[in-house]
Amino acid sequence: MSTLFAARGAVLAAFAPRVAGPRGSISVRRVSAANAKPSCRRRLVRVAASPETSTMEETSASARFDPPWSEPGYRGAAVSAMPPAKQAASVAAVWGGIAAVTALACGAVGPFIAHAFPGYMAWSRGLWPALGLTYVAAGAAHFALPKGFEDMYPHQGAWGFWYLPGTPDFHVKWTGVAEILGGLGMASALVTDDTPLSRVSALGLFILTIAVTPANTYMWSHNAPGPLPENADDSMLSMEKEAHLARAALQVLLLSVTWGMAHPP
Predict the structure, then answer these.
(1) What torsion do the CA atoms of 245, 175, 139, 235 make, to the nearest 10 degrees?
(2) Domain extents in the chain
(3) Which of 12, 55, 149, 237 could tie 172 with a disulfide, CB 3.0–4.6 Å?
């Protein structure tokens, strides 16, 4: 789910305004997540118990960290508005589709191209290690823009089944380190040609790309933002469906290339 964007959530502009309740009790009017400003990446909602607020959805007497896009239907998100069972089915269908297309690319399309166009495949394979530099850059971005990547991390209970231990900060950091190390190992083939190091690194990146797929899926299902400039306007807070399709295609490409590097002919 950043050093550049730390000021975004420092004040938390979406603190719910307080209104006086009977007998001096304090209740809280919750700010609509759909109207949350870009600076309010995540909101802090405090609810004080009183007889009149006992039936409210948020009854905790302590502060709670709640990303706005966890609200069903945030910014028109169709999947998050579904019941949990349908959300889980939709996510499983997306993951299954990516897996099926990747298996087709690695098991059939790639071998066909290698057999029919050996010269082209040899030239293409020579460029694959350069993809490692892309992973290095992506890993570095995890530390330069941590807040944006934390926002991509699925909240606890997402899709009705996501309860992975560890904080978003922890997962952003370890995946960033893994991308940097794996990318360097994969890119080493640009200098040393194919080696056990480059093959193991490529296999590690293949597994890592699978591991971060839920974050990409979360952006699609919940309209969660990724790293954004501080002056992001309303149009930048969510991606169009064409952009999500392009991201899925890129996912298949990354999986196919890293798998191919890890299993040279």
Answers:
(1) 40
(2) 6-66, 84-262
(3) 149
